[in-house]
Write a structure and sequence with these properties.
With 180 residues, the chain is mostly helical. It is built from 11 helices and no strands. The chain is elongated, with a radius of gyration of 20 Å. The N and C termini lie far apart (51 Å).
């Protein structure tokens, strides 16, 4: 009955409970982990969506720093939109009603079973925002370089584009010197 009230298959709930027993030291592992996650695209999608599932009320902050623009996987984009559709309250029950089985399993796993303690939310948000900002800066620099190459091939050179690239590179250096 409990699994039905959650909208989950009983086998998913039981496997989740086994995972919970295996992850009792999750808090210590999170404390000892490096604050900068990998920038692999799949890892970025997973990290962003795990946080969105645990802390949907922070979705506007993530949206404002450009996290939505970094999502590349269809499942992550779909889940983001479903959570965003429940604004401004982000009521978990409202979100759950919209999710399919695999999304519910992801929700259950990362919101309940593998979630770090709540006192890590602000640090995790800051870490994710830093990664998102860095990735967005990298994408902007790449786009500027590509546009400059195209302009150079046409014999046309845009001073504003060069200025934008220089500003982007300066911000990257500034961010890089504060990372440690």
């Amino acid at each position: 009955r409990f699994s039905q009230s959650l909208g989950l298959d009983e086998s998913v709930l039981r496997s989740g409970l086994r995972l919970d027993a295996q992850n009792q030291n999750r808090s210590r592992a999170y404390d000892n982990a490096g604050s900068q996650p990998s920038v692999n695209k799949n890892v970025v999608d997973n990290r962003i969506m795990q946080f969105v599932v645990r802390c949907p009320h922070h979705l506007p902050v993530l949206r404002d720093v450009g996290a939505r623009l970094l999502l590349t996987q269809d499942w992550a984009l779909t889940l983001w939109e479903k959570v965003a559709a429940c604004s401004p309250d982000y009521d978990p029950e409202s979100v759950l009603l919209q999710l399919n089985e695999s999304e519910k399993e992801f929700w259950w796993r990362h919101r309940v079973l593998e979630a770090p303690p709540e006192d890590h939310q602000e640090k995790e948000l800051a870490d994710i925002c830093a990664v998102v900002t860095k990735r967005c800066e990298e994408k902007q620099a790449d786009a500027c370089m590509q546009a400059m190459r195209q302009d150079r091939n046409k014999g046309d050179f845009d001073q504003d584009l060069l200025k934008a690239l220089n500003e982007t590179l300066l911000r990257q250096r500034t961010l890089g010197s504060t990372d440690g």
